[in-house]
Automatic annotation (TrEMBL):
Record's compositionally biased regions (Basic and acidic residues): 124-136
Single GO MF annotation: UDP-glucose 4-epimerase activity
Enzyme class, broadest EC rank: isomerase
Enzyme Commission number(s): 5.1.3.2
Cleavable signal peptide: none
Protein name: UDP-glucose 4-epimerase
């Protein structure tokens, strides 16, 4: 098959292009500026207008069999935009629909959209989120992702395009950035962390597991439709995650057993209630549909994924 991948030069995009190519598929990498994609990947530079031009067929990106849409306005902790929701909607809703239009024009029969666990909300309903649960997003990013999901499903039904939606939780792996990278740095430096008593469990997914699930959805001979959750199927506690990172780095994680109630009190005093709540609250997803409908299970364990992540981190520290 020939698969188009938007955001192909990003963290997940590069892993997906590699896995698709290694599985024998052709890959059309859609990027906004020339990039150093690996050999055998067809690179197409497209205008920086969130697929508006491509939706009109300029430039043409086909022929393709499926389209995996990773490009997005990502979550920003401190957004400086005057109207953040409008900015997210312009890229994550309208841009996604334009990408779906471009996919149809290029001959695709299937569109795989990478949404986010934030389309569900910040917490969980006392158990892992299932694919058929009613979402309750709270921030502009999550709202825009959920609106994109709904708009895409309606578009697909009206235009005869199979639409599969993936809501990944925390994604980690070689090249990871943001909070996960900060946690690795702190553990590597032996900095004490006040999370030894945080027993909330969080789902996460190794980047190659996510990429392999996207491959399975894009190339399955079976029909796919609707929402799919992808996870490593091994939900660690926050403290357990830090300890596992320490094992992978061969550094003892120095965790202080600060009571969760005290952490939340500090969050109220410092104006960081949302950040502390995210750290101390569980957020799990169930990947039952991927197993039941595609017979898919994660190829890599958490220990293997963390080992690869740590290996890349250690190599980057030596440069």
């Amino acid at each position: 098959m020939q698969i188009a991948v938007s955001g192909a030069n990003g963290f997940v995009g590069r892993a997906l292009c590699r896995i698709l190519k290694n599985a024998g598929h052709g890959v059309t990498a859609l990027v906004r500026r020339p990039s150093c994609m690996e050999e055998g990947v067809l690179e197409r530079v497209i205008p920086d207008d969130h697929f508006a031009s491509v939706a009109r067929g300029n430039p043409a990106i086909g022929p393709i069999d499926a389209f995996v849409h990773l490009a997005a306005r990502v979550h920003v902790m401190q957004d400086a935009a005057t109207d953040p929701l409008a900015e997210y909607r312009a890229v994550n809703v309208k841009g996604t629909l334009d990408a779906a239009s471009a996919a149809l024009q290029a001959g695709a029969r299937r569109f795989v959209f990478v949404s986010s666990v934030k389309a569900l909300g910040e917490g969980e309903p006392g158990r892992p989120w299932r694919e058929d649960d009613k979402p309750a997003p709270t921030d502009p990013y999550g709202i825009s992702k959920f609106e994109a999901e709904q708009a895409l499903l309606a578009f697909g039904q009206a235009r005869g395009l199979e639409v599969a939606i993936v809501r990944p939780p925390l994604v980690y792996g070689p090249g990871v950035r943001a909070n996960f990278l900060g946690l690795m740095r702190a553990i590597a430096r032996g900095i004490p962390l006040p999370i030894g008593s945080v027993e909330a469990r969080r789902s996460m997914v190794y980047v190659d597991n996510l990429a392999d699930a996207l491959r399975a959805l894009a190339t399955s001979s079976r029909p796919v439709h609707g929402v799919y959750h992808v996870t490593d199927d091994d939900d660690l506690t926050v403290a357990g995650m830090a300890r596992a990172i320490g094992v992978a780095l061969d550094r003892p994680a120095r965790l202080l057993p600060v009571p969760v109630g005290l952490l939340r009190g500090v969050g109220r005093v410092t104006g960081k209630v949302a950040q502390v709540d995210r750290l101390t609250s569980p957020l799990r997803v169930s990947g039952v549909r991927m197993r039941a409908e595609l017979d898919w299970t994660p190829p890599w364990t958490v220990a293997q994924g963390l080992a690869e992540t740590a290996r890349d981190f250690n190599a980057s520290q030596m440069q």
